[in-house]
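Q: My labmate handed me this sequence with no annotations at all. I'd like to see what the chain might look like in three dimensions before we decide whether it's worth expressing. Could you predict it?
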Amino acid sequence: MKIYHDIKNVHFSGEYIILTIDGDEKKFRIKDISPMLEKASESELKTYEISPSGYGIQWPLLDEDLSIDGLLGIVHTKELQKKIA
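A: Here is what I predict for the chain of 85 residues:
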């Protein structure tokens, strides 16, 4: 299995989600990344799963998924995918 990112320490503080991605702490304003997470209860926010490959985070109670590449602004193009494949 290809490992995309090492994700740790996912937590919420006020209007932010804070997580460690590949050893660096990152802070994102919740309302800028997900209306679903912005409206979620504390219990819904705390119920998440990190994908084993580090591709993303899922909140099963909300049916919400975030890709780590998307959060970091990494864009994948077909040209790049052809070179990797």
